[in-house]
Amino acid sequence: MDLIEMRDVKKHFPIYSGILPKVVGHIKAVDGISLSIEQNEVLGLIGESGCGKTTLGKVALRLLDPSEGSIFFEGIDIAKKKHDDLLSFKKKTQIIFQDAHSSLDPRSSIGLSVEEPLRTHKMFQDRAKRKERVVELLEEVGLESEHYDRYPHEFSGGQKQRICIARALALDPKFVVADEPVSSLDVSVRAQILNLLKDLQAKYHLSILYISHDISGVKYISNRVAIMYLGKIVELADQNEIFKNPCHPYTKVLLSSVPVPDPETREEVKLLKGEVPSPIDPPKACRFHPRCDCCTPECKEREPELRRIKKGHFVRCLSFKDLG
Amino acid sequence: MQKREILDFFTKNRSMSVGISILLIYLIAAIFAPLLSPHDPYEQNLDVRLSGPSREYPFGTDQFGRCVFSRILYGARISITIGIAAVLFGLIIGSGLGIIAGYRGGLTDLVLMRLMDVLMSIPALILALAVVAALGRSIPNMILAIGINALPLFARLSRSSVLSIRTMEYIEASEAIGTNSFNIIRYHVFKNCFSPLLIFSTLHTASAILMAAALSFLGLGVPPPTAEWGLMTAEARVYLRQAPYLVIFPSMVILVLVLGFNLIGDRLRDMLDPKLRF
Amino acid sequence: MDEKPLLEVKNLSVNFYIRHGVVNAVTDASFKIRKNEILGLVGESGCGKSVTALSILRLLLEPPAKIMGGRILYKGEDLLEKTEKEIREIRGKEISMIFQNPLSSLNPVLTIGFQVSEPIILHQNLKNDEEVKRRTVEILRQMGIPEAEKRLKEYPHAFSGGMRQRTMIAMALSCNPSLLIADEPTTSLDVTIQLQILKLMRNLRRDVGSSILLITHDFGVAAQLCDTIAVMYAGETVEYGSAVDVLKDPKHPYTKCLLRSIPRIDVDIERLEPIKGSVPNAMNLPDGCRFHPRCPYMIEDTCEKIKPEARQLTEGRLVRCHLYGR
Predict the structure, then answer these.
(1) Chain A residues near residue B192 by CB distance under 8 angstroms
(2) What share of chain C in percent tops pLDDT 70?
(3) Do residue A261 and residue C44 have CB atoms under 8 angstroms apart?
(4) Residues facing A43 on adjacent strands
(5) Which of A33, A195, B202, C262 lies 20 to 30 Å (CA to CA) from residue B102?
């Protein structure tokens, strides 16, 4: 069953200019995305910087208000609800940021940071019980109870991310957005956090939207993978399907660009031509056509739909059928 | 153990301890002025007018034969009260406005900050003169006049720290949890913009004391015969040739107090910077 | 392969003296780069790899930094003994460097043309404006910047991240240096752009014959580009050897564990094996072998007490570990 379903969600940021601010254009960060995440599923969202993947994550949690479209969470549309009515939604959803350092208040102790969600939602009114719960959470993520009174600057990057994960788990959420949770960590610590996320996901049957540009990490943790380019999803498939059989030309280039730690497989990979176009004025029709090697005249005319080519495998490309 | 820690702190923070000692001496002087002063500060003794420092009158006497030392002790009460009260006024109201402006943004921010700009565009002393001239000469009015000057400074400072705190991810994390604005300000914003405000308050107390003295010097502060340092300097300037100590002692006293506040403020800035704290 | 190395770093040690104590940023780094070779200096943040690079060009701010010992031989001469004037002659002309963040490495208020031509004017004695311009356009074009001539008058903000990094490389290469030091040149870039930069550096070696010291934390990047790899951990080079040897048959436990802990796109991994603990604080390093608290192969009574020396296993293969050669 779908836990969260986004239908044609758009997020356009207005650009102001002039002395008397006037809207002169829009940054189309998310431009018509339909995506659903099932219960107990990790959906990996891959895209290059500026493609709108972080914006999509924030819109899904209503940290940003969508410009258009609807978001169904447990069957209820939360896209247009007022912020005051979102308390029960926020209780069931959480976010983990890339930079664990700046997502912890430097002047709050670890205990205070982790119990904030409990305080906000008026759970465990009894102080001793609340502390007990916080300690339980800290232990769950591999920290110790004596860390309760310490401050963030006393911890290493990996430990800070563990604290953030503990805070995210405090309310037993159903849906978690993890925005590049390991990108800022040391290489030798990344695996610890990836494994922790994987274990917690399995234990609590969490649904996770795992946003990252680290393709190998996404491959490791995700059940399904979506590839995003300039505000749109260009390909969506199961993890093993997309890595074995990428169909969109962009996906192909992207996946083959990942450097493999094996000096004996140095392939001459095709380079992507040109630069990523601006999301203010993206190319008409297929957004990838100016950089695509299989671009046909039709690609410059007609906007492709995200169509199903196999069970669970969707591609937004007109020329795909020709490639067979 | 406790004692050693305190001792450690003072040996490590030389300038801080000098500042605190200065402040303590002034506070003691202000609080215990009636006990410490050898004479009544308002008692005139025309027999000994304009006599230099002596055992009887440590800082000499003024043109009415009043004991300058006693007047300086009593003057500490007024100067410190005005300095601290004016800064508190600026701190509470100014930073309150600044936090609201910074956190709410948009129109609230625009209106509040333009108002502050208007206040800021008027030279400090002229604004203070205008307030006192309009409301009359008294200590509360002086506090108000100096406090209004501090408003835009505190508002700007707190607004800019709030703006930088707002973009931090822990605020967003709090929003994701569902914490409301009031609690976010209470738990996160306030705690994090407190230290720059504290530092600025300490430093600004020094300027507030200077401005109080300046206002009195210009004849728009407290009315005579009140014992106030600025006023004392103003009255004594006529006798600068005959009795220079009349100007020197009150000025020195102002200088040292301002120095004390500055020493504390500078050191606080180093200590409270979280980047230097680990 | 007993060609004389172009650059040899021997037992380099660098400390930082800060308010709270001494940071042992680099304690024992040794490696060499031959002519026309690409060496990867691989390690995590804080292992001392950037400090090592900065010491080669003598760009460390002293104080707080202080080079405690060791030698840096460039073409047989010790760079640490050169005067400031002599080293300035070498910087940019013989050895040049590119940094991680292309955004802050370019001055936002100067045009691209001005910034790229600066080292040319400085080191190549080209007095003629026309000639300088021609050379500037030529290198920008080599770096694959489209419409290079028009772009000369533009400012850095008009360039994308990849183009900025290519401009940085263009600047570094403008005098055909013998050695290019690249400090995490692709870390802030997307994979597709990273690939362009890697290809550019490969071509550079082929066309100009430069040697490259590539500093990276990414074994993938190192594998794709480097001939030899030196692995650094907590200020020491722990393993040195050809890229194939180090990555295919790692000897040091740190290299072994690190390779096992990274997710890979080319292999399906059921479960990663993370290294326990975290990178030690450079102000408080463990005794004996610096990796021993995290090492699964630790030998009781040896690793925590005796500091291992770098031992040669075979020709050109060094490992700093008690497991070998006792």
Answers:
(1) 105-107
(2) 97
(3) no
(4) A209, A224
(5) B202
Could you tell me the two tokens for C71? 């030698």
Separation between Cα atoms, residue C92 and residue C83, nearest integer Å: 16
* Out of B176, B187, B274, closest to residue A63 by CB: B176
Secondary structure percentages of chain A, helix, strand, coil, to 5: 35, 25, 40
Specify the range with the lowest mean pLDDT, choosing from A67-81, A263-277, B152-166, C221-235.
A263-277
**Residue-wise DSSP of C157-193:** GGS-HHHHHHHHHHHHHTT--SEEEEESTTTTS-HHH
B110: Cβ contacts below 8 Å, ≥ 6 apart:
none
A272: nearest CA in chain C? Answer: C192
Stretches in chain A below the pLDDT threshold 70: 267-268, 321-324
Task: Read off the pLDDT of residues C1-11 as tens digits, 9 standing for 90 and up.
Answer: 456 788 888 88
CB contact (8 A) between residue A271 and residue C220 = no
Q: Enter the tokens of residue B200.
A: 């600025």
Confidence of residue B194 (pLDDT cuts 50, 70, 90): confident
Is the predicted pLDDT of residue C43 greater than 60, yes or no? Answer: yes
Distance, CA of A221 to CA of A43 (rounded, Å) = 9
How far apart, in Å, are the Cα atoms of B103 and each of A233, B93, B171, C16? 35, 15, 11, 40
Enumerate the residues of chain B whose CB falls inside 8 A of the CB of residue A107: 191-192, 274
C-contacting chains (≥3 CB pairs under 8 Å): A
Q: Tell me the mean pLDDT in the region C40-47.
A: 87
What residue ranges do the domains of chain B occupy?
Answer: 14-42+53-276
Average pLDDT of the residues in C115-133:
77
Please name the residue of chain B whose CA is at the shortest distance from the CA of residue A94: B176
Q: In this complex, which chains have at least 3 CB pairs below 8 Å with chain A?
A: B, C
User: Which subunits have 3 or more CB–CB pairs within 8 Å of chain B?
Assistant: A
Collapsing DSSP states into helix, strand and coil, what is residue C292? helix
- Across the interface, of C163, C195, C244, the residue whose CB is closest to A271 is C195
Asked if residues C259 and C202 have their Cβ atoms less than 8 Å apart, the reply is: no
ipTM: 0.81
3-class SS shares of chain C: helix, strand, coil, % to 5: 35, 25, 40
Chain A hits for C259, CB-CB cut-off 8 Å, are 261
Q: Which fold has domain B14-42+53-276?
A: MetI-like fold (1.10.3720)
Task: Please state, in angstroms and rounded to a whole number, the distance separating the CA atoms of residues A169 and A199.
Answer: 13
Which residues does chain A have within 8 Å of residue B277's beta carbon, measured at their own beta carbons? 153
- What digits encode the pLDDT tens for the residues B99-126? 888 888 888 888 888 999 898 888 888 8
- What residues of chain B lie within 8 A of the CB of A167, using their CB? 173, 177
d(CA B104, CA B100): 6
In this predicted structure, the answer to whether residue B275 has a pLDDT above a threshold of 70 is no
Tell me if C44 and A186 make a contact (CB, 8 A cut-off). yes
Of A191, A243, A259, the CB nearest to C274: A191
**Residue linked to tokens 């994987």:** A198
DSSP state of A273: P
pLDDT the model gives residue A177: 93
Q: Does A152 touch chain B (CB under 8 A)?
A: no
pTM score, whole prediction: 0.81
Distance CA C203, CA C187 (A): 20
What is the least distance, in Å, from the CA of B182 to any CA of chain A? 11
Mean per-residue pLDDT for C169-176? 78
- Using a CB-CB cut-off of 8 Å, the residues of chain A touching B275 are none
DSSP H helices, A125-248, are 127-140, 157-169, 187-204, 215-221, 239-244
**Residues A97, B187: C-beta atoms closer than 8 Å:** no
Residue A184 CB partners (closer than 8 Å, separation 6+):
A98, A99, A100, A101, A157
Angle between helix A110-120 and helix B169-177 axes, rounded to 10 deg: 30
A64 touches chain B (CB under 8 A): no
